[in-house]
Specification:
By secondary structure, the protein is mainly alpha-helical. The protein folds into 2 domains: 13-52 and 124-183, Distorted Sandwich (Calcium-transporting ATPase, cytoplasmic transduction domain A); 58-121. 40% of the residues lie in helices and 10% in strands. It contains 6 helices and 5 strands. The strands form 2 sheets. It has a 3-stranded antiparallel sheet, with no helix packed on it. Helix 3 (58-64) packs across helix 5 and helix 4 (69-83) packs antiparallel against helix 5 (87-121). The longest helix has 35 residues, at 87-121. The radius of gyration is 26 Å and the shape is elongated.
């Protein structure tokens, strides 16, 4: 649903003509949004990123280590050792399982932290038009109504409605599995819709 102008609109972006999209988003094709308007929209809509799942606690990571089949077998062997009266063997097995769970939880937390730092280093950027000028901004600062400029080799920083194109092809194998780039056009589509971005 679109709620920027004219109340809620139940049609999808690709079903609207370019002029209608520009009108609904209250933007300008050549000048884009003003700095003040983009700041207000950022405060209202928040950053342009997918909501990340909540990080599991350290205790959840620790207890998650016991879901492993090998760990369950070792716990079973420890229980059998206690039943057979081999207390030293049983305690040794339980100690090894607990140490393995602690080390596994620590390694998992470090891997999550490393991945988060790597994401920060490789944050995508976008070229937008704001106040009539081309600007390079972090992709997570995009707001609805931003006019984005895509050039050869660029990653699409957000869901977008094409306004103007020239020999525009998108390599979308990660989405659809197609090996060849797909030609995209800036026409509105109605009726049966193909899958993929900007169809």
């Amino acid at each position: 649903m679109i709620r920027i102008a004219h109340g809620a609109i139940s049609r999808m972006w690709f079903e609207m003509a370019q002029e209608e999209v520009i009108d609904v988003l209250r933007t300008h094709q050549e000048n884009g949004l003003s700095r003040d308007e983009s700041d207000q929209r950022f405060k209202f809509f928040g950053p342009n990123r997918l909501q990340e799942p909540k990080k599991p606690s350290t205790m959840a990571l620790f207890f998650g280590q016991f879901q492993n089949l090998v760990t369950k077998l070792l716990l079973g062997a420890g229980v059998v050792s206690f039943i057979l009266g081999e207390f030293a063997d049983g305690m040794g097995i339980f100690l090894i399982v607990v140490l393995e769970a602690v080390v596994g939880a620590i390694q998992e937390r470090r891997a999550e932290d490393s991945l988060a730092n790597l994401k920060k280093l490789t944050a995508p950027e976008a070229i937008v038009i704001r106040d009539g000028l081309k600007r390079k901004i972090a992709a997570n600062m995009l707001v609805p109504g931003d006019v984005i400029i895509l050039e050869a080799g660029c990653l699409a920083p957000a869901d977008s409605r094409l306004i103007e194109t020239s020999c525009f092809e998108v390599e979308e194998s990660m989405l659809t599995g197609e090996s060849a780039p797909v030609c995209k056009q800036n026409v509105s589509r109605t009726g049966s819709v193909k899958t993929g971005i900007w169809e």
